[in-house]
Write a structure and sequence with these properties.
Elements (H helix, E strand, L loop, with lengths): L5 E7 L5 H12 L4 E7 L8 H9 L25 E4 L2 H4 L11 E4 L12 H23 L8 H13 L1 H7 L3
Parallel strand pairs: 1-2, 1-3, 3-4
Helix pairs in contact: 1-4, 5-6
Length: 174
């Protein structure tokens, strides 16, 4: 019997930094059990160079990463999402498309590392901090007994991961 692959869509406004990092991390740590995707409500059209540099320096997947609209995932023929996670506060407050399949939705908001300006080292550090926070949350997510939870419990636990890493760990037993 083949194990089911879960699709996870990470949403942000510009789809150039946080959601891109999350997509790469999910594809790396998901080890074929989870497939990560990313999109934006108002995509910038290009992935931020600091995101690509960081992923390359850590040997994380970069293939196929591009800034794209979330409309691509609401169209017929698009992969059906099992989970949709917003990673920025602005995207969380926007009216999202209706996702086929009624995925579990959650908000894991965090500051935009691309918004950090001079000096350049500060921006690189912000990208590293964002990647570490996302990696921690994704690992907590991957540890959930997804098949053994009912829909409401699963939604509660995925949402709890975004409140804070400490809160999410405490909520694992809930």
């Amino acid at each position: 019997m083949t194990e089911r692959v879960y699709n996870v869509l990470f949403l942000c406004t510009g789809n150039s930094a946080r959601s891109i990092l999350a997509e790469s991390l999910m594809n790396h740590w998901g080890q074929g059990r989870f497939r990560g995707f990313s999109a934006g409500s108002f995509p910038k059209g290009a992935v931020h160079p600091c995101a690509l540099d960081l992923l390359q320096s850590l040997g994380l997947p970069r293939e196929g990463l591009r800034s794209k609209s979330w409309d691509e995932f609401a169209k017929p023929g698009a992969p059906i999402m099992d989970f949709v996670v917003t990673v920025c506060d602005q995207a969380a407050g926007e009216i999202c498309p209706l996702w086929p399949g009624h995925p579990v939705t959650a908000h894991w908001g965090m500051p935009d590392p691309a918004a950090v300006e001079n000096p350049r080292n500060a921006q690189r550090q912000a990208f590293r901090d964002t990647l570490r926070a996302l990696e921690s949350r994704i690992k907590l997510f991957l540890a959930l007994p997804i098949a053994g939870l009912d829909g409401m419990s699963l939604a509660r636990r995925v949402e709890a991961i975004g409140r804070s890493d400490a809160d999410a760990e405490a909520g694992q037993g809930a």
